[in-house]
Amino acid sequence: MAENDPHPITVAIERRIDPARAPEATAWMQAGTDLATTFEGFLGSGWVRAGEGSDLWYMLYRFRDIPTLEAWDDSPQRAWWLDSGRAFASEVRVERRTGIEGWFDAPFATHVESRRGADAPATGPIQHPIPAAPPRWKQAVTIWLGFFPTNLLASWALGYVPGFADWPLVLRVLLATVLLTPVMTYLVLPWVTRMLRPWLQR
């Protein structure tokens, strides 16, 4: 993947945590999230446990692009944070994901990189693999279900802008796409994919 890839990059990390030190691990995971928020290009993060008694914990975070992600990955702040948790946390797997599947929040994303953590066994199967993205036709249906009503509403609202109907077609489309792209990316598609998640998982 090119270094100037403009797509947001989502990183999924699977870790094993010493169950006896779960309270420390909880504070440690939150500290890592708080650190990442101070870096340019940070778009969000979260973490969950596989189960109440499980030693598998999953962390997700997203950056604007490869350069901003690597600025975090290579930072002394992250190195310090990782060192502070080595006594009770070990990485099992790290995956980067990008592309249109990024709208289908993990675990529905295309894998673009997969590597084992430094503390993971060199051989043997990786447990609890992350599922692949939904079929493309389901992605298309999901995007359409979000785009159609959003575009319809925007077209109706823009019809009330004085003189808008007289603008050249290129300018009308330009304004509509500039307005709708962030709405679709940050509001509509995340909401639609959450609502359709059981269907997307099947």
Automatic annotation (TrEMBL):
InterPro entries listed in its UniProt record: ABM_dom, ABM_predict, Dimeric_a/b-barrel
One Pfam family of this chain: ABM
Keywords assigned: Membrane, Monooxygenase, Oxidoreductase, Transmembrane, Transmembrane helix
Highest taxon of the lineage: Bacteria
Membrane-traversing stretches: 141-163, 169-192
An example molecular function term from Gene Ontology annotations: monooxygenase activity
This protein's name: Antibiotic biosynthesis monooxygenase
Domain called ABM: residue spans: 8-77
